[in-house]
Amino acid sequence: MTTIGAYIGLLNPEHKGRLLLRRRVEEGSIIRGQSFKGNWELPGGGVRETEKPGYDYFLQEAVREFEEEVGIAL
Predict the structure, then answer these.
(1) What pTM, to 2 d.p., does this model score?
(2) d(C-alpha 15, C-alpha 2), whole Å
(3) Is residue 61 very low, low, confident or very high in pLDDT (cuts 50, 70, 90)?
(4) 60 in Cβ contact with 48 (< 8 Å)
(5) Residue 10 in contact with residue 20, Cβ under 8 Å?
């Protein structure tokens, strides 16, 4: 199985289109031996690819990752 990134960009038009980013606190990443700790990124994370994933699967996983990391229900 492959791990892919699933991220959500959240724009707020009431605040001049500001984009919600999070500062990475984790050492590990989906890239072996690479750390992005301290970098700014879109909320999301690694998702294990299933045998025949569909759009709905990746959307559901991206929403789950977003809610887990940011604490905002979509």
Answers:
(1) 0.70
(2) 37
(3) confident
(4) no
(5) yes
